[in-house]
Structure formats: structure tokens, C-alpha cells
Inverse folding.
């Protein structure tokens, strides 16, 4: 049973998952192959899953992809990233992405961290 989203971060995660579900129903082969590929990319390897989530967060910030920013903030927190580690990753991203990356970081990222810490999103 799904609950009503308690905040904007939960709402975005639910919206993303719902859209992915519809896409999977309409394109099951493609979705299956994409999911297998991404699962392989995020498996523990020489780089930890934590490091991979930080990389994904940086790429999401650089590309201004709000759903992926939220998704990978959750991934970072789920993998045990500290706020300081996330902020350092943001700094590296801002070195390449400038003000656009920084604006997402100081708004959406900080809001998402706070909202995810205050809710139990699975």
C-alpha cells in the first residue's frame, strides 16, 4: 500500500517511479535491459557503491536533471554518505558546472537531504 507523499522530495520520487512503471509496462524488453545495465554499473567493484552514487549525483547536478538529483541524493544517503561528502562532491561539480550546478545544490540538494532525513522513504 502506498502512502501519500509527505514532501516535495517524496512526491518527485513517487512521480519518477510511477513514470518508470508505465514505461516498463509499455516497453518491457527495453526497460529490462536498461535496468540490468544500470544495476551492473552501480554494483560494488573497485569503486564502492557510495563512490558511484557521489559520481552520479555530480553528473545529475551538471546535467540539471532534477529527478536524478533527488534519486541520487537518496542513493548517497542510503549508502551512508555524510553531508560533508555530498558537499565536497557538489564543490567538484560546481568547478565544472558553475552557477547552474551550484544553484541546484544550494536549493534542491539541501532541501532533499533535509526531507529524506525526516521521512522513511523506501
Amino acid at each position: 500500500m502506498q502512502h501519500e507523499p509527505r514532501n516535495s522530495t517524496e512526491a518527485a520520487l513517487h512521480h519518477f517511479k510511477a513514470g518508470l512503471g508505465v514505461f516498463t509496462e509499455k516497453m518491457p524488453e527495453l526497460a529490462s535491459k536498461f535496468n540490468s545495465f544500470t544495476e551492473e554499473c552501480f554494483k560494488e567493484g573497485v569503486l564502492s557503491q557510495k563512490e558511484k552514487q557521489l559520481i552520479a549525483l555530480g553528473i545529475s547536478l551538471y546535467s540539471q536533471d532534477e529527478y536524478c538529483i533527488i534519486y541520487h541524493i537518496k542513493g548517497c544517503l542510503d549508502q551512508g554518505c555524510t553531508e560533508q561528502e555530498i558537499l565536497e562532491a557538489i564543490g567538484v561539480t560546481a568547478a565544472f558546472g558553475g552557477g547552474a550546478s551550484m544553484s541546484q545544490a544550494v536549493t534542491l540538494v539541501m532541501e532533499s537531504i533535509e526531507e529524506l532525513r525526516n521521512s522513511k522513504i523506501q
In short: The chain has a mean pLDDT of 94. Residues 83-117 form the longest helix (35 residues).
